[in-house]
Amino acid sequence: MANTISVNEGEIGQATGQDILKYPNINSCLSITAVFADGKRYGGHVVMFNTDQQLSLKDICDKIFANKGNSTRLIIIGDIGTWNQDWSQLPQTKNLIINGKKVTNVAGLGPAMGFTTNDNWDIDNCATRGGSYDIYFEYAGNTRQIRAYDKKTANNCTYFNTKTW
User: Fold this and answer.
1) Exposure string (b/e) for 20-37, b if CB count within 10 Å is 16 or more?
2) Distance CA 138, CA 142 (A)
3) What is the pLDDT of residues 111-158, one digit of tens each?
4) DSSP string, 78-133
5) Is 89 exposed, middle or buried (0-12, 13-18, 19+ CB in 10 A)?
């Protein structure tokens, strides 16, 4: 039976094998996940305004980069439009340097960390704008599946029906 590893706001987590990697309550947040050929998923749950007890965007990106290994794919899911719109205003993004490279938007995170495949999926593509979603990196049989569960409607967001990791 698969275990569920929850990555709460400002935290890093890892799932291997059939285990499920879950990012709860993604609304204005970002989930940033490196995926590996062997099924490992490693990532962080980034909040726009982190507390002292939470890892910042830079902290999470630095940890993902340090644990990147042979992963070539990074998947970012969240309120990408708002992050990009406010990038130059947010304290943790306006002068962001990752791996010695200045990053000016969400799409620049993966290349700065050396990922060759970068998927950036905005949660606003789901029917309930402004909703809160639980993001799951899981298996359906042998198929790698991404699922976004809309907590407001208690349904899965159909935008992610064809998304795999």
Assistant:
1) bbbbbbbbbbbbbbbbbe
2) 10
3) 999 999 999 999 988 877 668 999 999 999 999 999 999 998 899 999
4) E-HHHHHHHTTTSTTTTT-EETTEE--SGGGHHHHTT-SEEEEEEGGGSSSTT--E
5) exposed
The token pair at 102 is 């200045």
Domains of the chain: 4-160 (3.30.1330)
**Side chain identity at 73, as an amino acid letter?**
R
Give just the sign of the alpha carbon dihedral 124, 157, 41, 142. negative
Q: Is the dihedral of CA 57, 60, 10, 52 positive or negative?
A: negative
Q: Is 60 helix (H, G, I), strand (E, B) or coil?
A: helix
